[in-house]
Amino acid sequence: MTPRHALLAQPHMRPLAAYAAGLRAQGRGTVPDFDPLDGGTGARLLLVLEKPGPGAVLPGGSGFVSRDNPDPTARTCRTALAGIPRAGVVIWNAVPWWNGRMTLRAGERRAGLVELPALLALLPGLRAAILAGRAAGGAAGVMQAHGVPVFPSVHPSPQARAGPASAAGWLRIPELWAAAWAAAVAAPSPSGRGLG
User: Which of 2, 50, 58, 148 is the most exposed place for a label (fewest CB within 10 A)?
Assistant: First the structure.
C-alpha cells in the first residue's frame, strides 16, 4: 500500500473508497480509486471524464483517477484545474471500469450511468459538474435530475485536441472549467441536496 492509498481511510474519502470497492466487486473490470488529495465528499465540483486510462490501472499505474497520473490527459487536467482549489474538486469517469481497451461500447456507457446516482448521494456539497467528452456528456440527464448544473466540455485528451471538430473547444477547456468552478462557488445548495 502506498502512502496515498493510506489516505483513503480519511473521513472525506472513506465513502468514496467504499463506492469504488463496490464497483470492483461487480467484476466488470479494474476500477481505480478516487484521488484522496482531491476534495472527496466535500467537493463542490465534479469532473467527469470518460474511462480510466492505462496510467491509472495498468501494472505500475497509480491506482487513482488523478490529475497526477503520468499521461497527457492528466497533464491537461492539471493545467486546466490549476486555479481551482484542489479540495473543491473530485474527478471520476462516466465508465468507471477498465476492461483492457480504450474504446467505449454502448453497454458500458449505460452501466456507468446506472452507478452515478449512488455517487451523487455521497457528494452533498456538489454544486456543478463538468462533463468532459461524449461518454461523460451522456450523464447530463442524471446530473440534472439530481439538481446538479452541468458544463459540457471537450475531453482533455490529445485525441480530442487533434480532432477538427473539437480542437477549438479543447483550447477553451481552462476557461470553461474555471467558469464551472465559479458557478459552483456562487451556487446555493441544489434543492434537496441538504446543504445551505
Answer: 2
